[in-house]
Write a structure and sequence with these properties.
The complex is a heterodimer.
Chain A lengths: L1 E2 L10 H13 L9 H21 L5 E5 L2 H10 L8 E5 L4 H12 L3 E5 L9 H7 L4 E7 L11 H11 L4 E5 L11 H4 L3 E5 L10 E5 L25 H12 L3 H19 L4 E3 L9 E6 L4 H8 L3 E2 L14 H5 L4 H4 L2 E5 L6 H22 L1
Parallel strand pairs in A: 1-11, 3-4, 3-5, 5-6, 6-7
Antiparallel strand pairs in A: 2-8, 7-8, 9-10, 10-12
Helix pairs in contact in A: 1-8, 2-8, 3-4, 9-13
Chain B lengths: L1 E7 L9 H15 L6 E5 L2 E5 L4 H8 L5 E11 L2 H9 L7 E8 L8 H15 L4 E2 L6 E7 L4 E5 L3 E2 L10 E6 L5 H11 L2 E9 L6 H18 L1 E8 L1 H10 L5 H20 L4 E2 L12 H8 L7 E2 L7 H10 L3 H4 L21 H8 L4 H10 L2 E6 L3
Parallel strand pairs in B: 5-6, 5-7, 10-11, 10-13, 11-12, 13-14
Antiparallel strand pairs in B: 1-3, 1-4, 2-3, 4-8, 4-9, 7-8, 12-15
Classes of the chains: A alpha/beta, B alpha/beta.
Chain lengths: 372, 385
């Protein structure tokens, strides 16, 4: 089986696995306790925050460890909501863990606006200019779109927002970008940044939210006061330490080159009439999304599953009909039905990708013949 | 001591065969209460349960046994005047009006029913302030049942049960279980008439999802509340559908599909000793459920009748039953079944037999049916799994 759904989740790296076990079974002390063993764990935890900040290229601000990106996104949005006549802006291509919070705010009576996507797949920055004003409190936009792989120009977005609304907070869901797309956070100039460990060979159930100024963030979970009192609960030390190891062992630049190579190999093998690649803006090579015209992508995914595992956009929304990202890009439903997403990691063998491309093509043509 | 009195439904009508029905009911109750502590005994045309722990749980389970008409949870006391009167002295009424009813199942009891009832009524009047007797519309009714085993049973509520006939007394049949709302209801209604069911599900993997199959397993599991256990036959219909799609007129897709499903169902019935096919069809609900469609569909059956208990029911009525038997929420989960794959835009509403037969000539029917049967997977679903 060739696994090509790495945007959904990745395999835990051996090194991260060992780290996880060490902090779970050998150095398992509660960092909040009073004895010296606990103090050492607390020190390691403080070190982990600094290490992660460094990887994000952030000189100021703090790291709040969470259970993953969904919690990070919820905390970022809910924690930023204020009483008063504010508006909140979200890109229409966001993950469900952002979009559904936005919809909840809307139903609670908040002024919520959505930035449409261009037909190329990135957020429409010219549309954003018309949405943002001095009453804009919060803007959320994902860095790399989990469905299309589109890379949004976060630096330009920040500039537009800060010009019209200097007090607005900018949140970036960086789940598909962190450890995959090189960036300098100073250039991005964002206030909140979400990451999730299992997207870069760390364990599931651990993630983080970078926050530039934690004072602006409201507390969401009350308890013992951990995570700067923003998110109480005994810290998931094994998860945190394993996440750091997974992140630090990633060579972002060379992996990116490898992903580009794998992407090209796959495209070369798959290329045939009826295949239509999604989005023509700048895209992450880790994600390759295409429409298999004339067939149902869900059926194709199941046909392939014994040999090649591929996805259908965001795994969290894969059971729902339609796809909000492609809809926002202007794709009609009959095309969206044929959506398939393959996503790579840098350790995949080139020959496997070549073989996978051939298998996908062969099965697509076979299915097309059966249903036409 | 507490006792549960169980009353039969239609069993009285069954004349010479009554003992068969009674024995089946007796065994079905024992099976339903498997794992519980209880003693089940027969007494004068009734069944009685004693020595149990959790009354509520027992009642909930017994309410799903077909063949039981009603039940009452009673206090068991010695059937003599002193003990009965003592018991009534301790009764504290919660309502303002009441009535006492006495039934002497044991005519050897020396006091006649009416006399005992009025005597017990007097006791209640004496021990409760501001209450009065109302023989016609009492707010609280206290019933005394004096049985030949030397015991009297006192109870207030008669709880309605399912009625119907004991499961298995009408034989065995094969339910076509699609995953929709109607077929589980059809299964329930026929099980209520004493048919023990097995179920047949057609899936079209990879066109249908594993969740769709899981949904059918969940529905079958719900039906085990009434059907004890279900042997679920899962048959792949993928190749049949692909062949019909490739070779036949699109508007005949559903008609031919249904005819092939019936053939496969009949083969399973013949092989496994099942006497009928049960479907959830309701007249005119969809294109395949018009009179003409059903005529053409059932024409392929040689030895097996089809029972369609929902045939005259409105969708709303079917949904009501589905909610009562707790299958509705599962049925509406949004997973496609095989009938929605290759769905034509305009399916034929009034097919003619010769048209369907002509279309089928384009297929290697025997091969398709054999291949489908080869794919059969059997899942045993038990109530307590």
């Amino acid at each position: 089986m060739i696994y090509l759904d790495n945007a959904a989740t990745t395999k835990l790296s051996d090194k991260a696995g060992k780290e996880l076990l060490y902090w779970a079974s050998s150095n398992y002390f509660n960092p909040s306790a009073s004895y010296n063993q606990a103090f050492e764990v607390a020190q390691a935890l403080a070190g982990a925050r600094e290490r992660l900040k460094k990887m994000l290229g952030a000189k100021t601000g703090d790291i709040i460890f969470t259970s993953g990106a969904t919690e990070s996104n919820n905390l970022a949005i809910r924690g930023s909501v204020r009483d008063g006549d504010w508006n909140y802006i979200f890109s229409a291509g966001e993950h469900a863990s952002v979009l559904n919070v936005a919809k909840a705010l809307q139903s609670e009576g908040k002024n919520v606006k959505f930035i449409p996507l261009t037909k190329d797949g990135d957020v429409d920055l010219s549309a954003l200019k018309n949405l943002v004003d001095s009453k804009t409190r919060f803007v959320s936009c994902m860095f790399v779109n989990s469905v299309s792989g589109a890379i949004n120009d976060i630096a330009s977005l920040s500039k537009i927002v800060k010009e019209c609304a200097p007090r607005a907070l900018i949140h970036v869901d960086g789940v598909q970008a962190f450890c995959k797309t090189p960036f300098k956070s100073a250039e991005l100039d964002v206030d909140l940044f979400s990451i999730s460990a299992h997207k870069f060979h760390g364990p599931k159930g651990i993630g983080a939210l970078y926050v530039k100024n934690k004072a602006i963030l409201k507390n969401m979970i009350y308890g013992g006061g951990q995570e700067f009192d923003k998110r109480s609960g005994t810290e998931n030390v094994p998860g945190i330490m394993a996440m750091l190891v997974a992140a630090e062992e990633t060579d972002v630049k060379s992996n990116l080159l490898k992903a580009e190579k794998l992407n090209n190999i796959f495209v070369k093998q798959l290329d045939c009439e009826g295949i239509e690649y999604v989005g023509s803006c700048k895209k992450s090579p880790y994600i390759l999304t295409f429409i298999c015209n004339g067939v149902n992508g869900e059926t194709l995914v199941r046909m392939l599953e014994k040999e090649v595992v591929v996805g259908r956009g965001s795994a969290c929304s894969s059971k729902k009909a339609g796809n909000h990202v492609l809809e926002s890009m202007g794709y009609p439903l009959n095309k969206i039905k044929g959506l398939v997403r393959v996503s790579f990691n840098a350790s995949i063998d080139e020959n496997d990708v070549k073989e996978a491309g051939q298998i996908v093509k062969q099965n697509y043509l076979e299915l097309l013949e059966k249903v036409k | 001591m507490k006792a549960i009195l169980l009353r039969f439904g239609e069993l009285f009508l069954k004349g010479e065969n009554r003992h068969i029905f009674e024995t089946m009911l007796f065994n079905n109750i024992k099976k339903k209460l498997d794992g519980e502590k209880f003693k089940l005994s027969k007494t004068q045309g009734r069944l009685m349960i004693t020595e149990f722990d959790d009354t509520e749980r027992m009642v909930e389970k017994l309410k799903t046994v077909f063949g039981l008409h009603s039940l009452s949870v009673a206090d068991e006391i010695e059937a003599n005047e002193k003990d009965i009167c003592d018991y009534f002295r301790n009764i504290k009424l919660v309502e303002d009006t009441f009535k006492v009813e006495v039934n002497r199942g044991d005519k050897r009891f020396p006091i006649k029913s009416m006399i005992l009832a009025s005597k017990l009524g007097e006791i209640i009047l004496k021990n409760n302030n501001d209450v009065r007797v109302d023989l016609y519309t009492p707010e609280q009714k206290i019933m005394v049942d004096i049985r030949a085993n030397g015991k009297a049973y006192v109870y207030e509520r008669v709880i309605r049960c399912q009625g119907g006939l004991p499961l298995g007394t009408s034989g065995k049949a094969l339910l076509l279980l699609s995953g929709g709302i109607d077929s589980p209801v059809a299964g329930y209604l026929m099980a209520k008439r004493g048919l023990k069911l097995e179920a047949l599900h057609f899936h079209s993997y990879p066109y249908t999802s594993p969740e769709a199959k899981q949904k059918v397993i969940a529905l079958a599991k719900k039906l085990t509340n009434y059907n004890d256990e279900i042997k679920l036959h899962c048959v792949s219909f993928t190749k049949v559908q692909e062949a019909i799609h490739k070779n036949c007129l699109p508007e005949f897709m559903i008609t031919i599909m249904r005819r092939i499903m019936m053939r496969i169902a009949e083969k399973i019935c013949q092989r496994d000793g099942l006497g009928a096919i049960v479907t959830g069809e309701s007249l005119g609900q969809v294109a395949s459920q018009t009179m003409q469609s059903m005529t053409v569909t059932e024409n392929v059956l040689e030895k097996t009748p089809i029972f369609r208990p929902c045939i005259g029911m409105d969708k709303e009525d079917i949904i009501l039953v589905a909610k009562n038997i707790d299958t509705f929420e599962t049925s509406i989960l949004p997973y496609e079944d095989c009938c929605t794959v290759f769905l034509p835009k305009n399916p034929v509403i009034k097919p003619k037999l010769f048209q369907a037969e002509n279309e089928e000539k384009k297929l290697d029917l025997q091969k398709l049916i054999d291949e489908a049967l080869e794919s059969e997977e059997i899942i045993h679903i038990k109530a307590n799994d």
